[in-house]
Amino acid sequence: MKKFYITALALVLSVSAFAQTQRSLEDINQSNSWLKIGALIGAPTGAVADYSTFVAGLDLSAQFLRTNSFGVGIATGYSKYFKKTEAQSFQGMNDGFGAIPLGLLLRFYPAQEGLFVGTDLGYTFISGVTSQNKGGAYIRPMLGYHNYDWNVFAYYNHIFRPETTIDVQSIGLGITRNLRFN
Hints:
The protein is mostly beta strands and 182 residues long. It has one helix and eight strands, in the order H-E-E-E-E-E-E-E-E.
């Protein structure tokens, strides 16, 4: 957990260094706020790779450009970790397990179109397991390309769980469509 908090603090401080004129939430319009809906695919890494072969999911978020380059918002979605056919059961799962994140979205866009960096920080609820611990804090840093309508990105997802269970980690690719507010 200590690494999680240090990484989150470093990201927030580094993005703050690029501060520009800030907008208030009263200034929401289609040029600075939108919904993002998309899909994710990935591969489990770390200890969870012994139990799962593939990750597929949906990604949903709402974003507000606080400045011309810095976006904040909320992020959620659903990811399914598919079970390996020959694997032992992972904490009572039968057909894999699901992950439902709920977090803060942070994005930095150096230009109106091109590369971006960002992360999602929050808590992920785990479904389909029988262990008493059904989730943990998560961080999902990403690097990608964006334009007015689309975002394509590579990500690393890490769900930090208590010491008695294994962390859930994956790497993958995602794509989201920007749906503008009217």
